[in-house]
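The material for today's practical consists of a large collection of protein records. A record pairs a protein's sequence with a compact description of its fold. Instead of coordinates, the fold is spelled out as a row of discrete tokens. We will come back to this pairing of sequence and fold again and again. Here is such a record, shown just as it appears in the course material.
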Amino acid sequence: MMFLKSLKKSPLSARIGLAIVFLNIAACILAPVVAPYGETQIVADVWLPSSSTNLLGTDQLGRDMVTRLLYGARNTISISLAITMLSFTIGIICGFFAAVLGGWIDQILSRIVDIIMAFPTLIFALMVLSVLGTSIPILIVVIAILDSTRVYRLSRALGMDIEVMDYVEVAKLRGEGLWWIIRHEILPNALPPLLAELGMRFCFVFLFIAALSFLGLGIQPPTADWGGMVRENA
């Protein structure tokens, strides 16, 4: 009910953006149900124009483009979500521990992050993936580690600001453990900016995967992916 009231008060651009998000989520969830053909099924001749059986025509192998778009949304969104969740888990835990513990732990973690961020992210990812391979688990782990550096910096900055607050000092005087302080005092107060960053990082990860697939080191054929579809049908 509160959500509907806030939605009515939100600007038109926000409602349009929310509708697009829900459409993509629906495509992600319902792709196997609403897609007219299988993800890799060859249904007709190659490069056919739009028709009653193939609304957007066929690709270079004779696969239905509508089906590939739906499955591409499903694959790209689900992998992007997995990467974003993993990167935030790594970044938040390391950032908060560095902020609270300080000392040599903070120095080591911060220097590692500085070294990783010194390289252009796309170049670093291309180099690592060309060595380790491009399977989906490796893709998720590599991009999540690279993306977690941004989350680490934000989490560390927030943690250092909150860690000096009176209620955190009181928790320390009560004898609360480090993990308890992070979970009950720091994380709840750092949540709003972290949630805002979560949405932005998801968008960046989505575009990053598409760029890697376009360059041939992302999601591999025959799995559908929007970046790979651009490369295959350009």
Summary: The chain has a mean pLDDT of 89. The two ends are 46 Å apart (CA to CA). The CA atoms of residues 80 and 206 lie 5 Å apart. The first helix runs from residue 2 to 9.
